[in-house]
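ingest -> validate -> predict -> emit
validate: passed (alphabet ok, no gaps, 287 aa)
predict: started
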Amino acid sequence: MKEIQARSLPGIPVLLALLVAGLADGAFFINAAAAAEPSRMVIAAVVGALLFVCLFGLYMLEPNQSAVLSLFGRYVGSDRHNGLRWNNPFYSKKKVSLRVRNFESGKLKVNELDGSPIEIAAVIVWQVADSAEAVFNVNDYESFVHIQAESALRAMATSYPYDQHEEGQLALRSHATEISAHLAQELAERLADAGVQVVDARISHLAYAPEIAQAMLQRQQANAIIAARTRIVAGAVGMVQMALAELEKNGVVHLDEERKAQMVSNLLVVLCGERGTQPIVNAGSIY
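emit:
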């Protein structure tokens, strides 16, 4: 079912016309009563009843609001005109907000791709795009949006690891833009039948579950230490190679392989040590 644009009349002119017609009918009824003419009185009463029924055709719509009109269960159309409007008084009118709305899902506890339990939550921005589908395709479109948002978030969280383990792999913590795009697409597919458009969807909370948070923190710290040590060693080896090359190039000193190995060992200790080294001055021969 798709939305159909319904026609309606401006409400203020119709209201004024009904008031004028009501006053005229009242005067007609009074004259008929004064002339003791029952037939004219009946006609005036019937006209007055019809005018009173026509008042029920008035309804007001605010900006970004739609009225879904139906006649005895049959969908007639949707009116998106702002202000006071008038339509068939026998139409039932259900107002639907077309404004942009947002909500934050509760913190969900799920297992990510590697099986580790995590806590995740998201902020969903949405609006009704098709008022007919929102009213007739689902029982309660607001509740439908909330439930499907949690379902899509769970499905998305189980598709990615928390941290990146391989080059080019998408992860929840390191690829927020790609993950948000996937979540928005997942939501759009689930909410399309409800006439709801997903404006934006972003993760607002992401953390390991409390029972493994400490262990995962230690693992992250260990990975950081290993990465730092690897870089320090690589830099130290380069500096040692440069020092030996410069010494040989300038002819400062000629070292055999055993002394080169000893010098390399001493330089690596100095460059890679966490604390400052204490030098020992040799005043005699190096041999």
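Residues 210-250 form the longest helix (41 residues).
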